[in-house]
Structure formats: C-alpha cells, structure tokens
C-alpha cells in the first residue's frame, strides 16, 4: 500500500523511501525503547547517506500517513494521528541531526587509520588494553588470550568501525552473530562502555583532532549499542544455566517456562535477525552436563515432542561430527537405540518448529531443507534397516562359525586318514624288513 501511494503521489522513483520502509517496522515496534530507537535511526542514517537522491523526510511522512489511513479506515482516529505524528517527529529529529555525519565520519576515520604506521598501531592497541584493564580489572578474566589474539580483536574492531559506513546491513548481521557468541561465552554487557572509552582515550594519544575523536566515538558507540542489545536479548536464563554446566541449574531455569514454550527456549533463541540454538552451543562448547539435561528433559519424555526426537536422531546419526555429540547423547539415555526409540512414533509427522537453519545444515551435513526433510522422513526406515543389518550381521557371523567348524572337521577327517595311511605304510615296511632279515640268516 505504501509503494502504491508513493507511485500515485509521484514518489515512485525515490529509492530512499524503500530503504526507509524496510526499517520502519523495527522503528515502530521499538518506539518505547529509546536506546533501540536511536540505534535503528543511526543505522538508517548510514543507509540514507549513501543514497544519491536528495532525501526529503516530509514526503515520506505524507505517504506513510496516507497508507496507514487506507489500511485501517474504520479504526483510524485522532489518537492514531497524534501517535504516529509524535513517532515521526522523534524519528525525524534524530535523522535530520545525524544524516550529514556518516560521509564525513567515514572519510575522517579512513584517512586517520590508513596514515598510521605499524608502530603507532601497536601503541594504539597496547594503550587500549592498558586503559581498559585500569577501568575494568575484571576484564582480565575474559581477555586471557595471547597478545597476537588480543591485537587481532582490536584490528577486527577497527575494520568494523570503517565497514559499518560502507555496508551497514552486513555489519549489523555480523554483530548480531558475534553478540550471540558473546552470550555463549558469558561476557557481561558492563564491559562495553569502558572498552569504548578506553579505545577513544588511546586514540586521543595519537591525535588532537576533535573531528577524528568524535567520528571514532560515534562509530564505536553504535557498534557497542548493537552488541549490547543482542547480548541482552540472547542472555536468557537457559543460556546462563548452560554456562554453569550444571544439570540442576538448567532444570531450575527451564522449570518456569510454559509447556508450550519449553522446546522453543531450549532449542532456539532469536536476537535481531540471527538465531541461536542453546542445545548446539552446549554440545559445541563442551557443556555436556547441560546438553544431557536438555535431552533428558522430563517434559519432553512425557510429551514425546517431535523437535527433540528430530534433534536426537540427528545427533546420533553418522552425519554428526565429533565424539562429544555421541558422548552427550549416549550419556543422556541408556543407549543410542533408546534415544532413537523416544521419538520413533514421531518420524514422518513431526510438528513444525522454527529451528535456525545454518547450524542444522552444518550439524546434519545437509545442503538444503528438502534433503533435511527426506532424512527425517526416512529415519524410521533407516532405523529398521539398521536393526535388520544388525540381525543379518549376527546370522552371517554364526553361519561363518558353522562353516569354519565344518571345514575344520573335514580337515581333521582328511588329516586322520592320511596319518592312518602313513602309519600303515610304515608298519608294512617294518614287517617286510624283518622277513628279509630272517631269510638272509
């Protein structure tokens, strides 16, 4: 409806309106969250700054209100009009005040970083960590890697500071994935403000230009906002319990979840545009006690939940990678066959659940969703084939033993006959020799 109204009102060729429309949903949903609203507006500002057309925000307001009035004509009233006008005024104020920043900031930061020598960069890296550990001594418990690894983290940070101006959509995706990894590592969000302040302070030791400091601070603050938001959204009580690697803690954490949401909280966490599986993370990070507790979830055993059965089948299947997966699943049940039997009745008719696709594809060794569905549908048949193969193995083994025994007896019989002939021949020769000796005498 928006694009139709834009075309009717003569704005159909405005490419920036389509960009704005893509971000409007996130802006409207998070209008009550000031920090998230500011983050979305800053990212949108970077997108709009790369558009060659002139951006006239009042034009978007007119098209937006016209589309809203057309969608809900019966329910639209003055309260809706005032609410959307207030939202637009807040968004317009933020975007109008920052839309000129990205182009100037990108050029300033790029020029500064590319002019620095390797010695200056090493000084910048060392000074950043020195200031950070002075501000936040507990950060040393998390930054325990080698100096090379710590410098690599800062280099990646500087790359993102520049890349967020070039390709903001990709950087937001990467930061969402990185934030979810920080959730698994249990990194507190309280570390990010002092880290940004330390990075800016270290930068000020190399330059006195206020424009460089302001540009670097703006970019670093935006990156830290995205990471902190993703970590807060992904830090559920289940993930905190997994980091402890205690079965009792995980059972206590999931006990408060409604039965209908139990599987979702144990198998999928969504933060922004990225999804994350606590079960996959528990296995990959070595928290096998937590993985065992998830697989042994009593509600799952009682309800025979399809998603758990599918995941259990996939973990035990030969396509899985790593002995840790087998150890977790084998420790959760009496045997892998028992693990399979818990969901045998679900094969071919498992209820639908939104599980993140990329870890599923990687873990099960499949390349497409169709291949994954075929694997699930054939799981029952594969299980029966496996059992028949085990039976056939036993039959073949017994048959081979019997054949070997028959062959052994035939060999023993033939050997006895040969030995008998040899002995008889020997005795006959002895009798002939005695008769000849008697005749000679």
UniProtKB/TrEMBL annotation:
Keywords: Membrane, Nucleotidyltransferase, RNA-directed DNA polymerase, Transferase, Transmembrane, Transmembrane helix. One of its GO terms (molecular function) is RNA-directed DNA polymerase activity. The chain crosses the membrane at residues 396-424. It comes from the Eukaryota. InterPro entries: Globin-like_sf, Globin/Proto, Mb-like_M. The keyword Cytoplasm does not apply. This is Reverse transcriptase domain-containing protein.
């Amino acid at each position: 409806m928006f694009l139709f109204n834009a075309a009717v009102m003569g704005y159909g060729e405005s490419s920036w309106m389509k960009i704005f429309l893509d971000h409007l949903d996130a802006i409207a949903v998070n209008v009550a969250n000031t920090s998230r609203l500011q983050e979305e507006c800053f990212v949108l500002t970077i997108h709009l700054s790369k558009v060659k057309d002139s951006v006239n925000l009042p034009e978007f307001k007119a098209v937006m209100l016209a589309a809203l009035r057309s969608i809900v004509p019966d329910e639209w009233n003055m309260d809706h009009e005032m609410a959307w006008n207030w939202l637009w005024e807040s968004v317009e104020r933020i975007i109008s005040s920052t839309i000129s920043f990205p182009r100037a900031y990108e050029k300033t930061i790029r020029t500064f970083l590319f002019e620095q020598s390797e010695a200056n960069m090493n000084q910048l890296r060392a000074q950043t960590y020195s200031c950070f550990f002075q501000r936040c001594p507990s950060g040393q418990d998390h930054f325990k890697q080698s100096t090379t690894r710590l410098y690599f983290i800062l280099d990646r940070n500087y790359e993102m500071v520049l890349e967020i101006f070039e390709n903001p959509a990709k950087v937001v995706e990467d930061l969402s994935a990185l934030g979810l990894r920080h959730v698994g590592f249990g990194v507190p969000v309280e570390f990010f403000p002092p880290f940004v302040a330390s990075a800016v302070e270290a930068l000020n030791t190399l330059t006195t230009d206020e424009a460089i400091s302001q540009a670097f601070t703006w970019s670093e603050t935006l990156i830290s906002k995205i990471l902190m938001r993703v970590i807060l959204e992904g830090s559920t009580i289940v993930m905190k319990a997994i980091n402890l690697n205690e079965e009792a803690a995980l059972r206590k954490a999931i006990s408060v979840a409604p039965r209908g949401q139990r599987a979702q909280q144990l198998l999928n966490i969504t933060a922004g545009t990225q999804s994350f599986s606590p079960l996959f993370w528990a296995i990959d990070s070595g928290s096998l006690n937590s993985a065992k507790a998830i697989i042994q979830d009593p509600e799952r055993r009682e309800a025979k939940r399809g998603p758990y059965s599918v995941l259990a089948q996939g973990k035990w299947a030969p396509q899985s990678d790593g002995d840790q997966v087998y150890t977790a699943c084998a420790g959760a049940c009496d045997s892998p066959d028992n693990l399979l039997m818990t969901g045998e009745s679900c094969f071919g008719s498992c209820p639908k659940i939104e599980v993140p696709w990329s870890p599923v594809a990687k873990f099960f060794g499949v390349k497409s969703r169709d291949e994954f569905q075929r694997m699930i549908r054939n799981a029952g048949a594969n299980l029966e084939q496996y059992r028949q193969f085990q039976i056939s193995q036993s039959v073949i083994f017994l048959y081979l033993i019997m054949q070997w025994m028959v062959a052994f007896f035939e060999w023993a019989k033939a050997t006895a006959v040969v030995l008998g002939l040899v002995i008889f021949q020997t005795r006959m020769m002895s009798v002939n020799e005695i008769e000849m000796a008697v005749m000679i005498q």
